[in-house]
Amino acid sequence: MSKDDSLGESLRKQGISRRAFMKFCAATASLLALPPGMATVMAQALSRARRPSVIYLSYQECTGCGESLTRSFSPTLESLIFNAMSLDYYETLQAAAGTAAEAARKTAMKENWGKYLLVVDGAVPVGNDGVYCTIAGESAVDILTEAAKGAAAVVSVGTCAAFGGIPHANPNPTGAVAVSQIVRDKPVVNVSGCPPVPEVITGVLAHYLTFGSIPELDHLGRPKVFFGETIHDRCYRRPFYDQGKFAKTFDDEGARNGWCLYELGCKGPVTYNACATVKWNQGTSYPIESGHGCLGCSEPDFWDKGSFYQALSTGTWSGATVLGVAAVAGAAIGVGAAVVSRRRQAHLDNEKQPKEKQP
Ligand code: FSX
Question: Of all atoms in ligand 1, which is nearest to the CA of residue 121?
């Protein structure tokens, strides 16, 4: 697989059939809630796209984000899109080490200056001149500042990179901050979640490959298509919330009947993420479906707010905003239903697209 291959060429060399590729495009277009017909446009754009250089930096984090991303690998097709990029630097996966690894990063930056995609996971420690995270004698904050200068765009993967996450939590001894607090002159996409849903990461990358731009973002820099609705908006337990049926313990009859986990501390009503729709482990389940309330991990300061097992109205997430959200939850049903219906229609329309002939 040559570095100059288009994505289409590289997939062909990997033995991926046109049919499988089209299936991936239809699924991704549906995931991105794109209008009917966009699966074909996406397939054409992706086939022609050159494999962009990706430089992936990891700082203060637990490697959960990398674990999440790698779990979306084989045999999913989403992973192939990621493989089809030129991942020129990623400490967790790269074979090179030490001087050779750092040389690879600098070469990739030089050869692709202004064009590469910079992906960062983990928070950036700025306390004491950044001494708490250094690589090859350089501080994380210095490497990030230099790498961001030549990037076309920056993707912050995980809540640590997006909002500071757990490293930023009180008392924050290292002075950990979000990537967007360092990079101020480039578009930064925040793919939050601790860890983030892998298909949300690959969806953002596919969007960039297809359109050459980052997706529309919300007020916290998150892609609206994945973070435009709360977990509560799309939760399958929502009908029980609306009926006032709440589990009181994790093993009572209500819990066994799938009733709402609000009173057990679920933060779904104030958490924006795609867990309830995209789900985890290739669509198998998500925390609420597995019997545990949402921790709100894709929201800023989720760790400091804590109160994981206290209801929103009584825990440290409480306050006018939270209570307001809970109070108007019923009114949100109509909005949520409209979005669901639009997405379902987009999915159905994609399914109706004429199937490509086999090569
Ligand atoms: Fe943070 Fe990610 Fe949580 Fe861990 O890279 S978002 S602690 S899952 O690993 O940064």
Answer: 5
Check if the beta carbon of residue 131 is closer than 8 Å to that of residue 265.
no
Quick check: 221 pLDDT over 50? Answer: yes
Distance 136 CA to ligand 1 centre (A): 22
- Pocket of ligand 1 contains residue 293 by CB under 6 Å: no
Residue 297 CA to ligand 1 center (angstroms) comes to 10
Distance (Å) from CA 94 to ligand 1 centroid = 19
The model's pLDDT over 257-299, given as tens digits with 9 standing for 90+, comes to 999 999 999 999 999 999 999 999 888 999 999 999 999 999 9
CA of 137 to the centre of ligand 1 (A): 23
Work out which ligand 1 atom sits closest to the CA atom of 68.
8
CA–CA dist 253, 258 (Å, integer): 9
CA atoms within 13 A on the CB side of 119: 26
Residues 6 or more apart in contact with residue 193 via CB below 8 angstroms: 158, 159, 200, 273, 275, 297, 298
Q: What is the model's pTM?
A: 0.84
Pocket probe for ligand 1: among 58, 60, 62, the residue whose CB has the most ligand atoms within 8 Å is 62
Closest ligand 1 atom to residue 158 Cα is: 6
- Pairwise CA distance, residues 86 & 89, whole Å: 9
User: 138-139 and 124-125 as β-strands: parallel, antiparallel, unpaired?
Assistant: unpaired
